[in-house]
Amino acid sequence: MQCFEDGAAFEHFDREAFKFQHKLMGHPALSLENLARVIPALPPKRVMYSMGRLKEGDDFEGTFSRKPAERSIEETIENIRVSDSYVMVSGPEIDPSFASLHRELIGDVESLMRRHGVGTEAVDPQLYLFIASPNSVTPFHIDRYSTFLMQFRGSKEVTVFPQWDERVVTAVQREAYVSYANTRLHWSKETDALGTCFAFQPGEAIHIPFVAGHHVRNGPDDVSISMSIIFNTRQSMAWRRALNFNHASRRVLGRFGMAPAPIGAQAWRDSAKSGLWQAASRLRGR
């Protein structure tokens, strides 16, 4: 099964955000009834949710580190239209109803990668589900992966920012985020003007490049159901290693009044840093 409609926009893969069409509308795995069955049965560590309206400047990853005690996941799903709730599910493909869909999406992603010259294998591909109340917000954040996000119910606006623009996310912030050292990013209405806002409807998908800042606001009329497949490529894995290298070396260089050159400016320099980090990791046995 072909899950995505191919097109010229894929030439911008992992450099710019773009919209396209997906072909998974009506898939039984994504019905609210199936989600209400699957999600409560998943291991608790895979289901994260927030009660109360989030804002663009909230710490996205930190928001989901606390499980609210006043309402179960079953109650959250049942009342999500009016509860200002946000549910995020990692790896639903462990349930049989999502397993074949996961395989089909991987095949389609890798086919697109080969056709557009960005590698042959999706590294660590994983599904994420998002179920959210009307008007709810996914706060500003970056991802350590490349992302294809698909909408199935409700509408939203997805604002995506230039991938390496330090006016949006500084090099220090980006390195710390990718290294899991700090997940709080600065957001302001002034920097928001630098993003591109995409209106997003059921049947549409959007590509969000590796570490490109973004935030989401769901529409007012219906519960939003969306799903992403996240993955790395050979290039994004090299960027991850280079960002880790910069984060680790920044403190040492700072003692001499120096700072590492930012990632994303020179491909040869990024490649060298990636190689050094990979070699050091091997020596440490990681």
What's the helix and strand layout?
Elements: E1 18-21, H1 32-41, E2 47-51, H2 60-63, H3 73-78, E3 85-90, H4 96-115, E4 123-132, E5 137-141, E6 146-153, E7 156-160, H5 171-178, H6 189-192, E8 196-200, E9 204-208, E10 214-218, E11 224-232, H7 234-254, H8 267-283
Antiparallel strand pairs: 1-9, 2-3, 3-4, 4-11, 5-10, 6-9, 6-11, 7-8, 7-10
Notes on the structure:
With 286 residues, this protein is an alpha+beta fold. Helix content is 31%, strand content 23%. The chain has 8 helices and 11 strands. The protein has helices spanning 32-41, 60-63, 73-78, 96-115, 171-178, 189-192, 234-254, 267-283; strands at residues 18-21, 47-51, 85-90, 123-132, 137-141, 146-153, 156-160, 196-200, 204-208, 214-218, 224-232. Strands 1-9-6-11-4-3-2 form a 7-stranded antiparallel sheet. A 4-stranded antiparallel sheet has the order 5-10-7-8, with no helix packed on it. Helix 5 crosses helix 7 (234-254). The chain is globular, with a radius of gyration of 19 Å. The chain starts with 17 loop residues before the first strand and ends with a helix. The model has no long low-confidence stretch (mean pLDDT 87).
